[in-house]
Amino acid sequence: MEIINLKSESTRQKLMDIKNYLRKKKECVDTFLGLYFSSAIVPANLKESMVYSLSAGGKRIRPVLCLAAYEACGGVADDIVPYAAALELIHTYSLIHDDLPAMDDDDLRRGKPTNHKVFGEGMAILAGDGLLTEAFSLLSRGNVSLPAVPPAALLRVVCEAAKGAGIYGMVGGQAQDLLSENEEPDAETLLFIHRCKTAALIASSVRMGGMLACCSDAALSGLTAYGENIGLAFQIVDDILDVEGETEVLGKTAGSDEKKKKMTYPKLYGTERSREKAGELVDGAIEALEIFDEKADPLRAVAQYLLKREN
Amino acid sequence: MEIINLKSESTRQKLMDIKNYLRKKKECVDTFLGLYFSSAIVPANLKESMVYSLSAGGKRIRPVLCLAAYEACGGVADDIVPYAAALELIHTYSLIHDDLPAMDDDDLRRGKPTNHKVFGEGMAILAGDGLLTEAFSLLSRGNVSLPAVPPAALLRVVCEAAKGAGIYGMVGGQAQDLLSENEEPDAETLLFIHRCKTAALIASSVRMGGMLACCSDAALSGLTAYGENIGLAFQIVDDILDVEGETEVLGKTAGSDEKKKKMTYPKLYGTERSREKAGELVDGAIEALEIFDEKADPLRAVAQYLLKREN
């Protein structure tokens, strides 16, 4: 709970440290992804379309959370970068499909024109399909060149990714989000949407880090609670930023939730109460890491950082 | 090569046998899929949309090939139905996405309005995404209730499915197909499209049957050659049926390749030479099964059957 207290000198240091940590881990993931796709021999437009969205920036939060959870369980992050990077393929696919005219119809993402604006809708759909499928290819080919994660653990990781990304997670949340446009917000539906649409894959990212380290059940429970809490907080902050942020800083069109009549936390609770809720969730996330030692400090700091992010 | 010689009495019997075989295996897959989705608690429209396309009929050729390959290697098909059924989820997702206006823009599939015509484009995209992701969930959760397929074998199966369905397989083929519309057909591009778009996932289906049975390298080579041959033959027959078939029998709009200026075998080689090529491929497929005993008879018969299909 006191990991980041902005009043103290040591805390400013810790905030700098976590920014450094995030940057370094993001570089690992980006380096891997760059190499991975540079050697892919596939139709040129398809590759361009996938790489365009993958390299448009992004914080790589899901891979970083996976790496940080692996470290919290005593692992060396470098050993599992390809598995962590698979999460970014899944996340990027979801952004490409969400931005399509039939879905959220967005023109701007990470400060650049959305994928279908550049490559056309057909290729954008295929780029998304390709990224999602390639994620499972990455997760399942581990036994070739990486240090030994036992096959049974990897299989569990594949299943976890599918659960977080699929009909009981992200896809289910997106479907409910689509169905609930123009509806009056109610607390239960809103929680369902946010839990599934965003928190599920974030929680899976954290859990996958633990599973890759073959952690104990108790550790996995802690990571699960942490992931679910920060996942929900992340989406609430997203909702708030859509109301209060500026398009240039966000990299996507501000105010679009209101325009599309989306169900959001600020709409139901107001921004102030929403901010409080996000804070409570982050507190809960950090409490859930109680059984972990200082190797979980990056996870603790990331939770605080996500609360204060501006994009 | 003489498995089915239509002149003899025993051959008519064999043709009846294979129809029976296909029907029984299809029933196993359908029963599993029906039960699997009946218990799924996801947003109602999403579930309806997925089940609509899954239950629109279809021959379940990919699951059946997986089951038949498993039997050819000495396995009992009932033991691996969920893994085989996952292939139908992948196939169905690809049909839903292909039919979208931004892709092939088809109104009719398996004799019914296409998914997006009934549920809207947004939900159709999500139904496809959901089916694809759920396939990987099915493939990776084997250790819960099924007889032991070793985790390392299952992991290989997950990777194989991703390869056949992804950017080096089906998605890559679809992308090239989309890029090649209105282009003059050339043999190399046409072969690339058909190999990736259709043959890759069919070959993977056969290979997965072998992998699930932990078959020898020699057996896997035979299954691979068989699968690649019938996969290509399957698409050539599809091209011919689009020219010669009738919409009512096909269950999809006849003549649509010509209308969309697709690269096809009949367009490049004429229907007669295309039919010969398909026949040669089926012969090659059956030859590739040389090292297998009579347990591979259904695979041999399926190859002949695919050549003579009318939809």
Description:
The structure is a homodimer of 311-residue chains. Chain A is an all-alpha fold. The first copy, chain A, has a single domain, classed as Orthogonal Bundle (Farnesyl Diphosphate Synthase). Chain A is 70% helix and 1% strand. Chain A is built from 15 helices and 2 strands. Chain A has helices at 9-38, 44-54, 61-72, 81-98, 115-119, 121-140, 151-165, 170-180, 187-212, 217-244, 247-250, 256-259, 265-269, 271-287, 297-308, and strands at 108-109, 112-113. Chain A has a two-stranded antiparallel ribbon. The two termini of chain A are 24 Å apart. Chains A and B meet through helix 2, helix 6, helix 7 and helix 8 of A and helix 2, helix 6, helix 7 and helix 8 of B.
Write the layout of secondary structure elements.
Two copies of one chain form a homodimer.
Chain A: H1 9-38, H2 44-54, H3 61-72, H4 81-98, E1 108-109, E2 112-113, H5 115-119, H6 121-140, H7 151-165, H8 170-180, H9 187-212, H10 217-244, H11 247-250, H12 256-259, H13 265-269, H14 271-287, H15 297-308
Helix pairs in contact in A: 1-3, 1-4, 1-15, 2-6, 3-4, 3-9, 3-15, 4-6, 7-9, 8-9, 9-10, 10-14, 10-15, 14-15
